[in-house]
Amino acid sequence: MIRILVSDAPIDLGEEMRLAGDDGALATFTGTVRADDGVSELMLEHYPGATERALQALAEEATGRWSLSRATIVHRVGAMVPGDRIVFVAAGAAHRQAALDACAFLIDRLKTDAPFWKREQVGGQHRWVERRDSDDASAAKWQH
Amino acid sequence: MIRILVSDAPIDLGEEMRLAGDDGALATFTGTVRADDGVSELMLEHYPGATERALQALAEEATGRWSLSRATIVHRVGAMVPGDRIVFVAAGAAHRQAALDACAFLIDRLKTDAPFWKREQVGGQHRWVERRDSDDASAAKWQH
Amino acid sequence: MAVRILYFAWVREQIGVAEEDVNLPATVETVGALIDWLSARSDRHAEALASRERLRAAVDEAFVPLSAPIAGAREIAIFPPVTGG
Amino acid sequence: MAVRILYFAWVREQIGVAEEDVNLPATVETVGALIDWLSARSDRHAEALASRERLRAAVDEAFVPLSAPIAGAREIAIFPPVTGG
Å from B51 to nearest chain D CA? Predict the structure, then answer.
């Protein structure tokens, strides 16, 4: 079972944990806006339609590769402030190693495979976040 | 910040997620009783005092090794039925890889380092769960 | 060929529009050729699209390399490397 | 030496008690020697403690190998390999 949600509403972790299920082993990752370097606001732009399609494909790949009972990807878009949750991913499986590996896969690959762009507000200026080489390296380690 | 809880009360995931914090990256693992092979009840025995001490030491090791902002280990004891949550661990860090690695470390090492014993009820019989070699292998991979 | 072009993030900001409908000549056969063709539309286009290695693309919502053919495409998106998660 | 001995899981079930206070002779210097000494207390003890490789121990709440010394210990626990998580 796959749950994909892209929304400008706050992520409700209690509800997402409930929906993510109780299938023996559940691994989750939650990302939160940090106030690094004086960032006061984060704007998440995305490509409607293509985003959901990319996330669905990613969740399906994880489900097939690790025999997941459930895969969840929730991503917030729009304006956020430090402390707001940006992303929640969850992998439910019968066994712990599958859940842990699939969860790491989902968050690593989400950073390279899904059309989201971050824009940070610092003081009166805004700047688009640059892609980091470490993100490519993290995603690449999941290649067969 | 470390949170250790050993209790016979159900694990409240919403509350635990809230307490686990919002520090950039949060990785969690939740284990649930499965109804494998007709198991109708699981009894978790532990060594009061020594358990909390072992979990505290484990959380401190993870916190030092990955510079965690928060480490959480919640373990249920006593009688449980399939679907009940046995364990919840969480690692909060500034960066995702630290959170993911520390979470995997906590659950792998918890299975070898903390004095818990599982007894399964199947039909009219009960049997003590045997330690699996794979648990030792998973814990051993975290040796320096 | 009538195609809808979408721009995202700083590409969108620099060009000044989020999307535009264009009529492509048949000689424009790849995403890369499309980028060259779009660059001629205005100074803003030229500037936004100047640095090829900073651009990525999707054809009909699927990520593709800049060398990908665009025959039959209805929607082509051009954007910077993604930074979600 | 007065020591409290704790048993857990099937060790506890087979011996039939969760804990007992014993007075150890000075010749019992390690956990392994303690297990031998306890085995002589009853048939149930002997049976539960027969298979040394299935036993683990803690001295004053800290896990130790069976070769560990027990001098000064107040509480020694004997149990099967752990199976939590």
Answer: 8
Whether B140 is covered by a domain: the verdict is no
| Nearest alpha carbon to residue B144 among B81, B33, B72, B64 | B64
User: CA–CA separation, D76 vs B10, rounded Å?
Assistant: 30
Q: What is the pLDDT of residues B34-75, one digit of tens each?
A: 888 789 999 999 999 999 999 999 999 999 999 999 999 999
Tell me, yes or no, whether B138 lies in a domain.
no
Q: Which domain holds residue A124?
A: 2-129
DSSP bridge partners of C22: C3
**Residue C71 burial class via C-beta count within 10 angstroms: exposed 0-12, middle 13-18, buried 19 and up:** exposed
* CB-based contact, D57 to chain B, within 8 Å: no
Residue of B80, B87, B89, B100 to mutate, interface with A, max A Cβ within 10 Å:
B100
**Separation CA A15–CA A4 (nearest Å):** 14
User: Which tokens in the block code for residue A26?
Assistant: 């559940």
A142 domain-assigned? no
- Does residue A137 fall inside a structural domain? no
Q: Which of D38, D14, D8, D42 is nearest to D25 (CA)?
A: D38
Chains touching D (at least 3 CB pairs under 8 A) are B
The pLDDT tens digits of the residues spanning B3-31 come to 999 999 999 999 999 999 878 999 999 99
- The DSSP element (H or E) to which C19 belongs, if any, is strand C19-23
Contacts of C62 in chain A (CB under 8 A): 50, 53
CATH number, domain with residue A26 = 3.90.1170.40
DSSP characters over B23-39: SSEEEEEEEE---GGGE
How many structural domains comprise chain A? 1
Neighbours of chain A (3+ CB pairs under 8 A): B, C
Q: Do D82 and B128 touch (CB under 8 A)?
A: no
φ/ψ (deg, to 5) at D17: -135, 155
